[in-house]
Write a structure and sequence with these properties.
Layout: H1 2-7, E1 19-23, H2 31-39, E2 57-61, E3 65-69, H3 81-89, H4 100-114, H5 116-122, H6 132-142, H7 154-166, H8 178-199
Parallel strand pairs: 1-3
Antiparallel strand pairs: 2-3
Helix pairs in contact: 3-4, 4-5, 4-6, 4-7, 6-7
């Protein structure tokens, strides 16, 4: 990566001038972790939650490179609600932004379609039939999320599922594909156009 930085700045071929490179991305994707890896020591503050980096941090690396660690950036608003769910599930936005129950239901629906075997193996599910709420109930029963009245504590079960997804307990998972993003963008653009036409 450091070599690539210099290759992208041909004016500094001899690597004599200080080169500044900025690390940018959505919150909680590992920007600071990457910087610490490149630096070979823990310099940038990290944490398994969004908004750990509050302001820009400058870290000097070998070969006359300074990396600038930045707070996570997000869109000013989400035209597609699914984007909010995906960011919430992965911990890129604060847990208070979206209900844990709603995020867990979205996650189950997605995992059932794309990672069914992992979901079944992790929570010893005999199958994935029925509504996502029923599957979350089964996860809660398996993990002992039982309230005083003998009912499954859905919110606690949802928190367990989300935390284990974020901790990689279900393996490496992607919650979006280029095709999915394209299709959702088309639907969103059509909806926005229809709304604009209605207002005109």
């Amino acid at each position: 990566l450091l070599t690539l930085c210099h290759q992208l700045s041909p004016h500094n071929a001899k690597q004599t001038q200080q080169l500044n490179a900025m690390i940018m991305g959505i919150p909680n994707v590992g920007k600071s972790t990457l910087i610490n890896h490149l630096a070979g020591k823990s310099i940038a503050k990290t944490g398994n939650e969004p908004a750990v980096t509050k302001q820009q941090q400058r870290i000097k690396l070998p070969r006359a490179i300074t990396l600038i660690d930045t707070p996570g950036v997000l869109w000013p608003k989400f035209d597609n609600q699914n984007n909010g769910y995906r960011l919430g599930i992965t911990g890129a936005i604060k847990d208070t932004a979206i209900s844990h129950d709603d995020m867990a239901i979205y996650a189950i629906e997605y995992l059932r379609d794309h990672y069914a075997s992992r979901l079944m193996a992790r929570y010893q599910l005999p199958g994935l039939v029925g509504e996502s709420e029923a599957i979350l109930q089964q996860i809660g029963q398996y993990r002992g999320c039982i309230s005083a009245g003998g009912m499954v504590d859905i919110t606690r079960a949802a928190s367990i599922l989300l935390n284990e997804i974020r901790d990689g307990k279900l393996g490496q998972i992607t919650f979006e594909t280029p095709e999915m993003m394209h299709n959702e963008r088309v639907v969103t653009e059509r909806a926005i156009a229809a709304l604009a036409e209605k207002k005109a």
